[in-house]
Amino acid sequence: MLEISNSPDLPEIPTKRYFTIGEVSELCAVKPHVLRYWEQEFPELKPSKRRGNRRYYQRHDVQLIRQIRTLLYEQGFTISGARLQLGNDEETADVQQNDLLMKQVRAELEEIASILRV
Fold it and tell me: What distance in Å separates the CA atoms of residue 81 and residue 21, rounded to the nearest whole number?
C-alpha cells in the first residue's frame, strides 16, 4: 500500500472512532469542500452519514485522505492518476495476499498427501 506522508505539518491522528468533516479538514490540511469533492471522485472514500446528512469519517478514511493528498499535492498526480494509483495499490495487495494463501494451501495439501502415503 502507498506509504502515508509523515509531513511535519500534518498532526497525528487522535485515537477516536469518528471524526467530523471539520476535524478531518484540520488533520489533513484540506478544506471541507475539497473533501466533499474527493468523495465524488474516489469511490473508496465513503464516510458514514447520519442525522442531517452529517459526515462521520473513521480512521481509515483519514488515512485514505492523507494518501490522496500525498498523491495529488506532493507527487503531482492528477485526480484520475491518483484514482488509478490507489486501485493499483489495492490490486497489488490482493495479488500478494492470494499468493500467500495459495502457498499455505499447497503446504497443507502436501502435508495431507504425506500423511496419506504412510
Answer: 25
Which domains does the chain carry? 21-117 (1.10.1660.10)
Amino acid at 29: A
**Local structure of residue 99 (DSSP, 8 states):** H
Averaged pLDDT, 66-76? 93
SS3 content of the chain, % helix, strand, coil (to 5): 65, 5, 30
User: Residue 4: what pLDDT?
Assistant: 47
b/e map 13-45, b = 16+ CB within 10 Å: beeeeebebebbbebbebeeeebeebbeebeeb
Interval 85-97: pLDDT, tens: 888 766 555 666 7
Burial (Cβ within 10 Å: 0-12, 13-18, ≥19) of residue 59: middle
